[in-house]
Design a protein that fits this description.
Layout lengths: L2 H25 L1 H10 L7 H20 L5 H22 L10 H23 L3
């Protein structure tokens, strides 16, 4: 294989990894809201960093262990999860800012995120 082919394959591999990372970033946005409810008053954005770490980990696992998964399927999962979380979060009040640090809001956010992930899985991987 020529050097040009190796570089091209490396760039394509990196672009696929970044694409998966962004798609899983959409899917973990709800997890950020749950972490935000748990980490009340912290000024450094740890909740966003923690959910981004989950997205990077998920992208790495899918990229490494499941190289035959199409990026479009993962993008459908991420977009459906994001839209389902925003819709369910708006209806249930999860998106409202809470500043008291109650465990109720943390569990409510996590359950809404799990429901949104379930919707994302059904949308992305259901064969008709």
């Amino acid at each position: 294989m020529s050097d040009g082919g190796t570089i091209r394959d490396g760039v394509a591999d990196f672009a696929r990894y970044v694409s998966l990372w962004f798609a899983f970033g959409l899917a973990t946005n709800g997890l950020d809201v749950a972490f935000d409810a748990a980490l009340v008053g912290e000024p450094f954005g740890w909740s966003l960093q923690a959910s981004s770490l989950v997205a990077v980990g998920a992208a790495f696992v899918v990229h490494t262990w499941y190289p035959d998964v199409r990026s479009g399927t993962v993008w459908r999962f991420g977009a459906a999860t994001f839209l389902a979380f925003v819709t369910l979060g708006t209806v249930t009040g999860t998106m409202d800012a809470r500043t008291n640090g109650s465990l109720y809001y943390v569990l409510k956010s996590l359950l809404v995120w799990v429901a949104a992930v379930s919707v994302g899985v059904v949308v992305a991987w259901t064969d008709d």
